[in-house]
Design brief:
Helix 6 crosses helix 7 (about 110-120). The protein has about 140 residues and is mainly α. Strand 1 (about 65-70) and strand 2 form a beta hairpin. Strands 1-2 form a two-stranded antiparallel ribbon. The chain contains 8 helices and 2 strands, in the order H-H-H-H-E-E-H-H-H-H.
């Protein structure tokens, strides 16, 4: 893994160099919470990421050790992306962002319901999602 070039020694600035754009956390979300693992599955997300941006973010997440590329178990023509332990450790960050959003932003009813369930069962849901991600 090549070292990441960061703008400063500030921990927040350094993490934003990796996941501070709109797309990186959505890719992590799609793997952790939506069971997506291939390039085409990421392209079909409702946020509609551009192909060049997706390729760039997958490369960045792989370079920084958040994602690993593997042969797809069902097709040699596809690449299977899975989260590394480092990537799985982002789950509590995603959960807190979801909970914050649920409190402070206008979101659709399905997302609000998920956020409420998450709030009620946060630790159990985090353990369950982390265990499922580690099995991939």
């Amino acid at each position: 893994m090549k070292p990441l070039k960061v703008r400063s020694g500030c921990p927040l600035s350094s993490v934003l160099d990796i996941i501070g754009d709109k797309w990186s956390l959505l890719i992590v979300r799609d793997i952790l919470m939506n069971g997506k693992n291939t390039y085409n599955e990421f392209l079909r997300s409702k946020e509609r990421i551009a192909t060049n941006v997706l390729a760039d973010r997958l490369s960045l997440l792989e370079t920084t050790g958040i994602l690993a590329r593997e042969e797809h178990p069902e097709s040699k023509a596809k690449i299977f992306y899975r989260l590394t332990d480092k990537g799985i450790d982002l789950l509590p960050v995603l959960v807190e962002l979801i909970l914050w959003s649920n409190t402070h932003l206008p979101i659709d009813e399905a997302a609000r319901s998920y956020g409420e369930a998450l709030k009620r069962n946060k630790e159990a849901m985090i353990r369950q999602l982390m265990a499922a991600a580690r099995k991939q």
